Amino acid sequence: MKAHCYPVAVHARRLLAAAGAAVTLLLAVAPVHADALPAADEKSVRTVVEHQLEAFAKDDAEKAFSFAAPNVRQAVGNAAGFMAMVRRDYPVVYRPASVAFLRPEGKDGQAIQRVHMTDAAGDAWMAVYSLERQKNKAWRITGCVVVENRGRMT
């Protein structure tokens, strides 16, 4: 099974700390018992991920980077480095052939947005985004875990 976590880049210690925080958040918020978000937050969380995917599609590094939370921005350093990392390590996120959003969940200013994606070869993936509400009330992406989705529907 292939799996990817970002942020992953040059500064290993900071990146491992940021990735570890994202994984900890995913484990803390992702269980089945996560709360439903209010409708406005559901829309905002989904919109942030949608807009980042749109920015990747347009190769707009600055716009894509603007949806990253401070922990990611600090770990990666700049928009060009962020875009290069996504292209290299997250090809399905960079150029998904299709996406299907599940309902986001969360609590206490933390959210999880799951997105089914397929790549150009038709392989299925699950991207699990962690987001955090910032002091200005905006949602920003704190991390993303992508795993191959081998599940089958009957």
Q: If you had to describe this structure to a student in words, what would you say it looks like?
A:
With 154 residues, the chain is an alpha+beta fold. It has one domain (3-148): Nuclear Transport Factor 2, Chain: A. Helices cover 42% and strands 26% of the residues. It has six helices and six strands, in the order E-H-H-H-H-H-H-E-E-E-E-E. The protein has helices spanning 12-29, 39-57, 61-66, 70-76, 79-89, 91-94; strands at 3-6, 98-101, 105-107, 110-118, 124-133, 139-148. Strands 1, 2, 3, 4, 5 and 6 form a six-stranded antiparallel β-sheet that branches. The protein is globular and about 35 Å long. The relative contact order is 0.22. The model is unreliable at 1-32 (pLDDT under 50).
Number of DSSP-assigned strands: 6
What is the name of the CATH class? Alpha Beta
What is the level-2 CATH architecture name?
Answer: Roll
End-to-end separation in angstroms reads 22 Å
Order of helices and strands: EHHHHHHEEEEE
Q: What's the helix count?
A: 6
Number of domains: 1
- Determine Rg (CA atoms, Å): 14 Å
Q: What shape does the CA trace take?
A: globular
Major sheet attributes: 6 strands, antiparallel
SS class: alpha+beta
Strand content: 25-35%
What is the residue-mean pLDDT, rounded to a whole number? 83
Low-confidence stretches: 1-32
Helix fraction, binned, reads: 40-55%
What's the CATH topology label? Answer: Nuclear Transport Factor 2, Chain: A
List keywords for this structure.
154 residues, alpha+beta, Nuclear Transport Factor 2, Chain: A, six-stranded antiparallel β-sheet, 6 helices, disordered N terminus
